[in-house]
Amino acid sequence: MTEQDTYKTITSKTLNVLFKDKNSKFFGYAFPVLNENDVKKHIETLKKEHHSARHWCYAYKIGREKVFFRANDDGEPNNSAGMPIYNQIQSFEVTNILIVVVRYFGGVKLGVSGLINAYKTTAQMSLEASNIVEKTINIEYLISFDYKNMNTVMRIIKEKKLNVVNQELEMNCKITVSVRKKNAETVFNIFDKLYEIKIKKV
């Protein structure tokens, strides 16, 4: 079994998907996020934008190999909102994503099963409206060498089609390259065997 080195995420925010049930309105939003600060900012913005709403329920998933997630019912009955949203994130196999469903209460109680359906459906609609892309998991290496070894290093970078993230080309040269995870060990070994060239993981 080959180790997976790709993941799916969304490229930009998806706004204002609307689901209605018995006069209650559920607005769905999806955001790409990299950390909890991103999550907080988006939720604060939505609370200002929808200040008269009743609930701002959400779920997020961050990380690729080590995954961190949270589901929040925000005052709705236990597991009737956050988990149905999170289950859709799992179903679409995406990460680095936040989905918020903003609810305006319409005066008629939906019951737990009605709420689960509403939050699940709104999250699903948000994901269906999102631009989901597949990205590779990459590892960055710092290659250090003297200027005289420049041609050797550049030849390997070109041959292996490595992505140069950063470079300082002076007497003591440093180049940071990004390597797809499945090729990382091979690339490391090529540079590691070369005399006067050092490589280390960033």
From TrEMBL:
Residues forming the Impact N-terminal domain are 22-126
- Give the domain of life: Bacteria
Record-linked Pfam families: Impact_N (PF01205)
Q: Which residues form the signal peptide?
A: none
Name any Gene Ontology BP term: regulation of translational initiation
- Residue ranges spanning the membrane: these are none
Q: What is this protein's name?
A: YigZ family protein
A GO cellular component annotation in the UniProt record:
cytoplasm
Q: Which PANTHER family match?
A: IMPACT FAMILY MEMBER YIGZ, IMPACT-RELATED
Q: Which organism is it from?
A: Seonamhaeicola maritimus
Stated family: Belongs to the IMPACT family.
